[in-house]
Amino acid sequence: MIKLYDGGAYLVNGNELISDGSEAAAAVESKTGVKTDKQEAAKGTMAYRILNAHNTSDNMQQLKIKFDKLTSHDITFVGILQTARASGLEKFPVPYVLTNCHNSLCAVGGTINEDDHVFGLSCAKKYGGIYVPPHQAVIHQFAREMLAGGGKMILGSDSHTRYGALGTMAMGEGGPEIVKQLLEQTYDIPMPGVVAIHLTGKPQKGVGPQDIALAIIGAVFENGYVNNKVMEFIGDGIDNLSVDYRIGVDVMTTETTCLSSIWRTDSQVKEFYDIHGRSEDFAELAPESVAYYDGVVEVDLSAIKPMIAMPFHPSNVYSIEELNSNLEDILRDVEKKALVSLDNNKDIDFTLTDKIHDGRLYVEQGVIAGCAGGGFENICDAADILRGKYIGADEFSLSVYPASQPVFMELVKNGSIADLMATGATVRTAFCGPCFGAGDVPSNRGLSIRHSTRNFPNREGSKVTSGQIASVALMDARSIAATAANQGYLTAATDIDVNFNKPKYFFDKSIYENRVYNGVEKADPSVEIKFGPNIVDWPEMFPLTDNVLLKAVSMIHDPVTTTDELIPSGETSSYRSNPLGLAEFTLSRKDPAYVGKAKEVQKAEKARLAGEDIYAVDPELKQVYAAVAEKFDVKPEETEIGSVIFAVKPGDGSAREQAASCQRVLGGMANIAREYATKRYRSNLINWGMLPFVFDGELPFDKDDYIFVKDIKKAIVEKNDTVKAYVANKGMKEMELHLGALTDDEREIILKGCLINYNKR
After folding, report:
1. Fewest beta carbons within 10 Å, which of 36, 129, 299, 300?
2. CATH 3.20.19.10, domain 548-758, yes or no
3. Are the beta carbons of 216 and 297 closer than 8 angstroms?
């Protein structure tokens, strides 16, 4: 079904793969007449050509990328715009789209959400941007319909910024990287590796894009096969996939922890651009006659069955057939795995075996939504499966969210919406709510099956600290519809006798022309920005001192820590325009004591900055500095005091910068990790002036210990990777921390205290 190569491979003439080895180059030459090597052949990938075209440096090993277009949604754009404004923003240098698909239905009371939307519209007018009002489109569907272009690059402040199926290399990053582009700075990364995703065969009837995506995620996530690499989709199997289908696979590549994706394009992609009235944006993309890949994932599409990703990660993958055949054993195993994600909290009553009814798995909810599930073809196929059936009058419910108003309109015109509504399903407007915990939250102990992007703990909106626990399993829209047809009993779409009608899609651009504000190249400096009472400026950050003292206020030993655990999504995101208000929720579902502990450390730092007695604020510091003084001549009044969290592998999931910025505004100065799950989380730490430490070996410190880092400023200035640190309250036990690779700009950002300070130079 899926095979991973042990090493790299050459691609010859677009389809034949030759595994790397001592004879590989000779084999390539014999077939093509071209004498080459890995370094030269690597230039034959689509990814290399696109990156080369957007690189502003003279060194392809250290890229400085400028993107063609930018996009953000309402969880992120307020903070981005506030940062850019504080950094001297005058106008948007490239098209920048502000969508409102994440908070349009959050019920926190008052005017908070709409105030942020009005703020976004006024900024689009002032700086020359595009504003997409609530319910018009989820961020990535609008980008597919209106922004993508062959050979172009798009940067978005959402992790699922993926438009590779349309020939666009897109990347999801934290807000500060958007800010850099708005200030005409660059996105600086080493040249990424490129892994071929070689597709062969044709999917079975009933197997959808989510099934293919989950199978790939299950094969590559745990081993990090594509981590921070570009996934390049090639092979004859692409010809057997519609563009909508390719998009459905592509958007889920984020869950592999890859950097970006790109696909070979063809006449079907050209037709997509023609339908959307943007024929000029199509470009034919394919690897050169000889291309080298750092790895290969072989995918036989015909061998993939309907899949399900069980709680609490998209990589926790089984075939539905396997699950149904070994139901009790697998559910018990998932329950055991879940304990790790739930910190082995015995007070949490999480069960799945109670969902077994008469030997079958019963689920309480189905959802087809967002950038992954809400596409035209997914919903049409779901309607075909459900036509003439009904979902029942029991606990099971089904909600469908078309990804944009143009998609919704066409589904109305071809009758699919009526067919779905007749079954008892509800149809909603474009909204990402179910995907981030702000819509269709299941009941306590409920199990929801969803064609969406993530199923992390509490991502669906439940709150463990309030005694709630629910969970999500990811599935394809077709199998969700098949399950709905059986009134909540888990069913694979391949077990349903159905004729898929495959109606043609027509795009009505007037929907956007009538409602979306397009201010590109029409910046009006005279426009006054509209501020709601919750919109607050970033607090002042201060430059790094020579030495720092860190208190470990949280220790997370889970194998992976998601950004949703660092800062919960859902209704808490309504406070995204108030840095201090949002920070109150930091680690609230993972370590509820964190905020209070961080604030206590911050009190000492505020006292130090004010020239007050730090020992009066925190008497424990007197003993700590006494221990430090036995080894070093250090002035406490000149040593920054901050909090630090330890996590094994933090940063999987969302690109939201708040996972870092919330720590920072509470006085956080560093993370210590075994490794960082994603580049984007590490970048967020750096852009907020935090030290991205890595530590190997047995931990010499624990929660509430003090870590003194000597000459940290000097280490950064001199570009040293290794710094000496000491556990001050444990006899100055010595340890080594590593900073990892930092660009010159990143070093300067850390020294200045954050990106805002860096841009005030």
Report:
1. 300
2. yes
3. yes
